[in-house]
Specification:
about 110 residues; mainly beta; three-stranded mixed sheet
């Protein structure tokens, strides 16, 4: 049976979102969207936003991550995380649906 699950957000990503909201003084949610374009066919759009009517809301400790209904099929079983590396700190998406991705980490293709 093919089990499809909504994306999962790590505690580290929720904690970083809380820090961002504290720094900006805005209690906004983190939107994860998938758009056409990018060097591999699709690209992630990650930004602070307000919740919409058709959004899936993933919530923990008052922090919210939003995924719109169009992007959701592309993000099934994905993990949304936050990483701090030498190249910088950023939100990352580990997506089992992506057949290939490019070095920028924001673009991918579906196989």
């Amino acid at each position: 049976m093919d089990l499809t699950l909504p994306p999962r957000v790590t505690d580290r990503a929720f904690a970083r979102l809380a820090e961002i909201c504290e720094m900006t003084g805005e209690a906004k949610a983190l939107r994860i969207a998938v758009e056409g374009g990018g060097c591999s066919g699709f690209q992630y759009d990650i930004r602070l936003d307000e919740a919409g009517a058709d959004d899936l809301v993933l919530e923990k400790d008052g922090q919210r991550v939003l995924v719109d209904s169009v992007s959701l099929p592309f993000l099934q079983n994905a993990v949304i995380d936050f990483t701090e590396e030498l190249i910088g700190a950023r939100f990352v998406i580990e997506n089992p649906n992506a057949s290939s991705s490019c070095g920028c980490g924001t673009s991918f293709s579906m196989g």
